[in-house]
Amino acid sequence: MQGYQKLDKIVVRYILLVAALTLAIFNYKLIFAWVGKLWMVMTPIIAGFVIAYILNILMVQFERILWPHKKQGYWQKSRRPLAITLSLLTILLVMLFVIGLVVPQVYNVATEAIKAFPVFISHVEKWTHQLERVLPDNSNPVMSRFEIDWSTMLSNFKSWTNDFLSGFVNTTLSTVGSLASIIVNGVLALIFSLYLLMSKEKLIDQFLHVLTTYVSKKRSRKILYVLTTLDEAFTNFLTGEVIEATILGVMVTLGMWLFRFPYAGMIGVLTGVFALIPMLGAYISGILGMVLISVHSISQAFWFLLFIIILQQFEGNVVYPRIVGSSLGLPGMWVLFSITIGGGLLGIPGMLLGVPIASALYRIIKRDILERDGYSYSQRQAFLRHAPKDSFQQIAKDEAKSINP
């Protein structure tokens, strides 16, 4: 009787699962709309968790420095607020350094570009008029075979240029319009992150209380093992990213000074900032640098693009896997693999999440294999040498002999 009751429960579960999947399939648009709305509402909270996690890395280091032997009293109570303040000041000083170095030069470049823009347009118009006079018409027996309408091509080029400029202006205005919403969400996220940091130990204890109450001891230990491994991987990843970005920024700055490119300091800082995006960041900063240098000199802009491509190949295949991979304990091949898969699935967020997640999985699987593996290196190599001579029938016979010797 108990067996039938257990079977009935399993059948009911599968029926409910099929019904839920059917409802989800027929109402997927409504579900996606609700998920999108929930994501918009949760954005400040998610951003607050991210900010708190990043600040926590600095906060822990400051707490180790600030009178670590004081366990009670005023010193112990003031350690956390002071550590948070120092962490915020550190990030603020870095941001002010980047802004102070980049913004004035960007303003100068933009001023030069605005002054040069009318001259550029007049040159383009003169060039198109000259081109119209030089290009052969369709009366030419050779060109008539190709049926090329040069006037239509030139008019299409002019209309494309106008559409591009108007689209650029509209995009800029819409970006400025959404800036207020970004600022409000940023302030809310920062306030939420401060609450998280001030109550870190209490929140962790509440999470453990809920986990151990509703989950068995064995599963609780497994969950905590996975979470602590992920935490260590993300911490090492962020630390390695900052070190690698600093090295790349210095390399770009020194290389630009060596080859006498303009705006070396500014582009070096931009490269260091964008290098926090794995592998792709240097190319983004390279395109921005090329645009900025092109205002000064077109030829230097192309030479700079060649320089940044060569440097990025060296950085992506040598520096990045060694620094970030060594800090994560992840071989360089798997670093490139995780970035490729993560970027292909989720874009830039996938690149940022792929490496630490792959590192955590690598550690968990590696430790599990070491604990389970009962064969030595020589035995595994013997399996490999014997594999070409093996067969399914022979394997079955050997297995039967091992069970019934």
UniProtKB/TrEMBL annotation:
It is a multi-pass membrane protein. The chain crosses the membrane at residues 12-32, 38-60, 81-103, 176-197, 242-259, 265-284, 291-314, 334-362. It is found in: Cell membrane. The keyword Membrane applies. The keyword Isomerase does not apply. GO terms for cellular component: plasma membrane. One of its GO terms (biological process) is transmembrane transport. It comes from the Bacteria. Keywords: Cell membrane, Membrane, Transmembrane, Transmembrane helix, Transport. PANTHER family: PERMEASE PERM-RELATED, TRANSMEMBRANE PROTEIN. Belongs to the autoinducer-2 exporter (AI-2E) (TC 2.A.86) family. This is AI-2E family transporter. It comes from Facklamia hominis CCUG 36813.
